[in-house]
Amino acid sequence: MQTGIETDVEVIVTWRKKGRHPGDPGVTERSSLKGGDRLNFGISKFSGRLQPDAKPSIGAFEVSGHHLLFSNLTASTTFAIENLEGGTELVKARPRQLGMVIPFEISRILIPSGTNISELTVFAPPPVLLGSDQAAAYAESAISNLDMASKYFAVLVALCEPRLRGSSMAAVPSAQEVVKRLKGTRQFRDANRSSINYHIDYLTDRKLPVGQWAKYVDEGRMHSKREALVAFALRFDLVREEHLGLLPDLKYSSAPRS
Fold it and tell me: How far apart are alpha carbons 160 and 164 in whole angstroms?
């Protein structure tokens, strides 16, 4: 047995296998990896789909300790690894890059080709966390500056919702779309576009250092306050999937006005 390997660690890799007949959605195949295991994959010359151990190998997974390592074995293709729990988070596995740590617990690996995009879904070990009694108290953190029961935080969650629900390319809602999304709550019974814009201004000017952050990531340019807010909030985990419970039920919020 290799030293330093945690034998109880398990990684699951899934992919879609093409059906035999036109229109057949196919089935989900899976492979389970334990500590010390390695899984190479390639593109089947028969189906044109991802397949374990197909030659030549274009990528590989390896479980080492408590980490999942990924290698891009291609000469010129960049793979995108998206965090399926974090909205817009992703890392790139560049050509010939070996042994990069996948930092997400649930991720999607996208592999482009000339005709389609192949996809792998990966369920990695949960992160190792420091004990709460050992963690540093950081009173001036951005999250501590937000009141999650406030109207402005509900507006921020509504702005982030499309990307939190799994689409990193989703458009950021307009102020009027936020009005429609929040109208099912008592707090926003009389909301209009001006009041939503007030909360957006308050967040960017008073609560979060969005303008200062923009200087580092885009030379000070902000394409819109709404987009800058969403990018900042999701980048630093200020709004997470659990906060979607603060919004009214989707079916209710889409009902017509009486």
Answer: 6
For 91-136, write each residue's pLDDT tens digit.
999 999 999 999 899 999 999 877 778 889 999 888 778 887 887 7
Q: Residue 13: what residue type?
A: V
DSSP string, 70-93: EEE--SS-PEEEEETTSTT-EEEE
Q: What is each CA distance from 4 to 7, 66, 76, 236, in whole angstroms?
A: 9, 9, 34, 32
> Which residue matches tokens 């039920």?
249
Highest mean pLDDT among 13-27, 138-152, 179-193, 227-241: 179-193
Question: What secondary structure does DSSP assign to 204-257, as a single string?
Answer: IIIIS-HHHHHHHHHTT--S-HHHHHHHHHHHTTSS-GGGGGGSPPHHHHTSPP
- Alpha-carbon distance of 215 to 169, in angstroms, equals 22
CB 11 within 8 Å of CB 104: no
Angle between helices 193-202 and 225-235 (to 10 degrees): 50
